[in-house]
Amino acid sequence: MITKEYITELKHRGNGDIATLINTQRDVGSINYILENLGQLPDNFHADFLYSLLNHNHAQVRLNAVKNIAKLNGKSDIHSLFTLYQKEDDSSVRREIVSAIGRQRKCQNKPLLYSFLNDTDPKIICQAIRGLLVFENDKEVEEHLHPFVNHENEMVRTVIYKEYFAKEKKTENTLPHTETYDFLKNVVVNADVLDALKYAPDDSIHLTFTSPPYYNARDYSIYPSYHAYLEFLDKVFRETHRITKEGRFLIINTSPIIIPRVSRSHSSKRYAIPFDLHPYLVKNGWEFIDDIIWQKPEASVKNRIGGFMQHRKPLGYKPNSVTEYLMVYRKSTEKLLDWNIRSYDCKTAEESKVADGYETTNVWKIDPCFDKVHSAVFPAELCKRVIQYYSYKNDLVFDPFAGSGTVGRTAKNLNRYFFLTEKNETYFGYMKSQKIKTLFEQKETKFFTLEQFKNATI
Questions:
Q1: What is the CB-side half-sphere exposure of residue 436 using CA atoms within 13 A?
Q2: Is residue 36 pLDDT above 70, yes or no?
Q3: Phi/psi class of residue 126: alpha, beta or left (left: φ > 0; alpha: ψ in -120 to 50)?
Q4: Could you give the angle at the alpha carbon of 55 between the alpha carbons of 52 and 57, nearest 5°?
Q5: What pLDDT is recorded for position 264?
Q6: What is the count of structural domains for the chain?
């Protein structure tokens, strides 16, 4: 049996024993196991056998051979790699060849890297760009790369834009990333969200979690048309983007909705809200990160399958809808996620760690919640997971459609602050009535009209 220890021992002998070992193998799996466990190669390593493997008929072997050739401390035979690139039809191998040539960081390789920029594979172009970017302040390289800011592929455009055209965001007179304004902490505003957000500062909230009103499905959510509904949400999340701190998250809970038919001679209409809303969000600077499925017990949802169960006729199948979407977005930024995380001090980071028992998949099985005041209530468990997974202790959590205030109550229980807006006076009154019971025993909650909120921001 070939072990990692045995491979390491042969590698350091420096007399070609690894090549002999590979030549004795008859199955591809063993060859790949040896190649994948070679690790760092010593200076006296006999690498001729690696070049022989570039002609192997199995793509994974060729790929692993290229990866090891790239470890040869700048001594790789570029001609052999380029020859393989020209005839190779496996995209992973071709990308690895470009990476191997780029990692040599040699000026004489620049013409080859320029040629790779003409490839039709965006990942190969990005690898070539990566190899060229090591030549800092090189005018020739810049002349070749600048035009790619207009490349048809979004990955290529983003790399070039970030390297050459992105400007550092000005931070004068703004709060540190982890902090927010006191007048937004633990505040509920009884007003239309668009009116309230006129008085909310840029870069002031850390997380938004909300469930928008469903199109014409409730008395409190009547819109003249579906287009008008989407345009309204577009405005809300455009403003939400403005007040969200750099690189922080927006999670929207929604699902397709059915508008019942007006008579038996007409059809009902189903609107794909999550999918129709998505293009608006991306256009306005929200980067799509994940989709999480909220799965409810079948007994808790309206039965749509009854008719089909009786006749079983094709075309009439209508499954019971037991899922909703949590669409996860991040405010677009040139900074990596680590920048956000490093903004917090060690104590806050440690206290904010998610405890054992966290969900590991994007399917969350949570029972729905029902309330005599609000007909579409967030389950506290759903809020708890989102707030724990996407914010830190003392962050500010925003819900533009607060309803009965579950996001606020959960945020408070998790040592976060909250900022809520709610247009419906009944729901606002309900949240006020719950103040003594649950909302704030220790920290004051401020319930504002629009005018009071406006004055508080001055």
A1: 1
A2: yes
A3: alpha
A4: 130
A5: 72
A6: 2
Rounded CA separation 316/307 (Å): 8
Nearest to 344 by CA among 380, 302, 394: 394
Q: Which of 117, 135, 165 is the last residue of a domain?
A: 165
Buried/exposed 224-251: b ≥16 CB within 10 Å, e otherwise: eebeebbebbbebbbbbbbbbbbbbbbb
> Over 90: is that where the pLDDT of 308 sits?
no
For tokens 């692993």, what's the residue? 64
Instruction: Please name the residue ranges forming H helices in 3-72.
Output: 4-13, 17-23, 28-36, 48-52, 59-69
CATH number of the domain where residue 233 is located: 3.40.50.150
State how far the Cα of 377 lies from the Cα of 370, in Å rounded to an integer: 6
Fill in the DSSP letter of residue 42: P
Domain span at 158: 4-165
Of 433, 341, 441, nearest to 390 by C-alpha is 341
Question: What DSSP letter does each residue of 183-197 carry, written as one string?
Answer: GGTTEEEES-HHHHG
Helix spans in 104-252 (H): 110-116, 122-132, 139-145, 154-160, 193-196, 226-243
Give which of 418, 420, 252 is closest to 330, Cα–Cα: 252
253 and 149, same domain (yes or no): no
pTM above 0.85, yes or no: no
pLDDT in tens, 225-276: 999 999 999 999 999 999 999 999 999 999 998 876 767 767 778 899 999 9
Contact 411, 417 (CB under 8 A): yes
Quickly list DSSP for 16-27.
SHHHHHHHT--S
